[in-house]
Design brief:
With about 250 residues, the protein is α/β, with parallel strands linked by helices. About 35% of the residues lie in helices and about 30% in strands. The chain has ten helices and ten strands. The protein has helices spanning about 45-55, 80-85, 105-110, 120-130, 135-140, 150-160, 180-195, 205-215, 230-235, 240-245, and strands at about 5-15, 20-30, 35-40, 60-70, 75, 90, 165-170, 200-205, 215-220, 225-230. The strands form two sheets. The chain has a six-stranded mixed β-sheet, sandwiched between helices. Strands 2-1-4-5 form a four-stranded antiparallel β-sheet, with helices on one face. It is globular. The structure holds adenosine-5'-triphosphate. Adenosine-5'-triphosphate binds near residues 42 and 47. Adenosine-5'-triphosphate binds near residues 62 and 205.
């Protein structure tokens, strides 16, 4: 039986600067507890889709002009980014934007800012994040800007976790990282999904890795979903092999 959709994106169109049509009717769903990959090349519209979901397009002069977005059955496409965060939809942006001049731990703490909870509870959550990312515990007092790319990606995901997400929108987690670190990060994603029931919508150009860790995938080309299916199914597909995995 299909799990009920946590996130339901239905036919969205996105226009930048009032004229540039970038998403041309994108539909996708993320089931409760799912890991869904949004695949496709540079400029296909992956980042735009994630930003549409968390309503971060305004500052880019972009807007959703058609379609709808529901989260847990509630319409959210008019909702402010902070109201989405309160509902547990948390974005980890491309380029793992940490505050470089803050320590790793201070970065993590900024992720809890919207929650009105006690210090002791935040301390417990911090320990939990360190449980998932032991490297971050070692680096807790280092300036984030001086940690490695992999550690910065972990800090960015850890900060999202401090906001108690039910869904993380993860943009290009593998970008610029060595294969071994990419593997480590995806293992943690899988672990968070299995133990904390965090659902993921992740944009990736690294099709091979994404399909190994995701349950389901959508392939975007030029602002349209051109293919979708279970991760196993996509990994076996001849066109996917040829165009995205470089094997045929
Ligand atoms: P990438 O991996 O490079 O981020 P992507 O699949 O995430 O690629 P988007 O970043 O969503 O793609 O970009 C989709 C298209 O929208 C591209 O053609 C891009 O040039 C265009 N675009 C993105 N942001 C803006 C903007 N603020 N104003 C105008 N056009 C934009």
């Amino acid at each position: 039986a299909l799990a009920k959709p946590l996130l339901d994106v239905n036919g969205i169109e996105v226009i930048y600067n009032h004229v540039i049509l970038v998403l041309k009717g994108v539909s996708l769903t993320v089931p409760e507890g799912g890991i869904v990959a949004l695949l496709g090349g540079n400029g296909a519209g992956k980042t735009t889709t994630l930003k549409a979901v968390s309503n971060l397009l305004k500052s880019e002069r972009g807007e959703v002009t058609k379609g709808s977005i529901h989260f847990r059955g509630e319409r959210v496409d008019e909702m402010s980014p902070s109201d989405l965060v309160k509902r547990g939809v948390i974005q980890v942006m491309e380029g793992r934007r940490c505050f470089g001049h803050l320590t790793v731990e201070e970065n993590l703490l900024t992720g809890a800012y919207t929650r009105k909870v006690s210090r002791s509870e935040i301390q417990l959550d911090l320990e939990k994040v360190y449980g998932f990312f032991p490297r971050l515990k070692q680096r807790r007092t280092s300036m984030a800007g001086f940690t490695s790319g992999g550690e910065q990606q972990m800090t960015a995901i850890g900060r999202a976790l401090m906001g108690k997400p039910s869904m993380i929108l993860l943009d290009e987690p593998s970008m610029g990282l060595a294969p071994q670190i990419v593997e480590e990060i995806f293992e943690i994603v899988k672990n968070l999904n299995a133990t904390e029931r965090v659902s993921f919508l992740l944009a990736e150009q690294n099709t091979m890795v994404a399909l190994r860790f995701a349950d389901f995938g959508y392939i975007l080309e030029n602002g349209r979903v051109v293919m979708e299916g279970t991760a196993d199914h996509l990994a076996e597909n001849e066109d996917v092999k040829e165009f995205y995995l470089g094997i045929s």
